[in-house]
Amino acid sequence: MDYVNIVIGLVLLLFAGDFLVRGAVSLAQRFGVPTLIIGLTIIAFGTSAPELVVGIDAVVTGAPTLALGNVVGSNIANVLLVIGIPAFIAPMACNAPKMGRNMIIMIAAGALFFFMASSGTITSGNGFVLLLLLFCFLLFSALQGKKSKGDAELIAEYEELAEEPVSYGKASFLIIAGLVGLSFGADLLVGGSVNVARSLGVSEAVIGLTLVAIGTSLPELVTAIVAAVRGHCDVAVGNVIGSNIFNTLGIIGVSSLFGDIPVPDSFIEFDLWVMLGASLLLIPYYKTRKHVGKISGLVMIILYSGYMYHLANSAESASAMGMPL
Question: Which of 50, 262, 296, 323 allows an S-S link to 216, with CB 3.0 to 4.6 Å?
Answer without folding.
Answer: 50
